[in-house]
């Protein structure tokens, strides 16, 4: 496979253009690519292009050789509603969610979330997670970059009107995924923090119309639960 890079302003076939600074740095300084090598570019909105590097160094340039129409998106529309997790767990969760084909990631602050972010720190962290999503798209072959939404408190997110179904992972009292009919609308999948959802949060989720679902009798870690659920959903109703 050719190296893949995210270029949001992808020109038309046959055009020559200067590579965006981030792409130029990665191609030149990290991967040590040279003029004449082929690369794959995508605009994050579905378009992909085969291109040739014309020159590197001070003014890295490329030529678009062919626009390729291909769709690698999952047939299920899933938004991962992930309670904030500590350390680098959120990076890992966002990365794997992209690989699994999730449509969007909505971070939420839960009662038992150890990580607390607000103001500029929250904005900076969301920007970082968005870049993690871009890098994961480059690696996984996706041509659409999912959006990492601004952090919301769980009550605020529950109060917002959303399209489709809302499912909350609940080890106790949830329906097994294998017993649920295939969803016909987008699904927002809610995953709790390290300490799990509180009883008050689970009650609020049910009042808001969220469907409790379970992944079997074992308790999964927050960084495992969402990925496992998405894998099961794609195996049951998706493209696996």
Automatic annotation (TrEMBL):
Q: Which GO terms describe its cellular component?
A: cytoplasm
Kindly state a single biological-process term from the GO annotations of this entry: rRNA base methylation
Supply one GO molecular-function term: rRNA (uridine-N3-)-methyltransferase activity
Per the annotation, which location comes first and is thus the protein's main one? cytoplasm
Q: Which residues form the Ribosomal RNA small subunit methyltransferase E methyltransferase domain?
A: 73-233
Q: Give the Pfam families listed for this entry.
A: Methyltrans_RNA, PUA_4
Q: Which InterPro entries match?
A: Alpha/beta_knot_MTases, PUA-like_sf, RsmE, RsmE_MTase_dom, RsmE_PUA-like, tRNA_m1G_MTases_N
Catalytic activity, EC: 2.1.1.193
Keyword list (alphabetical) reads:
Cytoplasm, Methyltransferase, rRNA processing, S-adenosyl-L-methionine, Transferase
| Protein family according to the UniProt entry | Belongs to the RNA methyltransferase RsmE family.
PANTHER family linked: 16S RRNA (URACIL(1498)-N(3))-METHYLTRANSFERASE (PTHR30027:SF3), RIBOSOMAL RNA SMALL SUBUNIT METHYLTRANSFERASE E (PTHR30027)
Q: What is this protein called?
A: Ribosomal RNA small subunit methyltransferase E
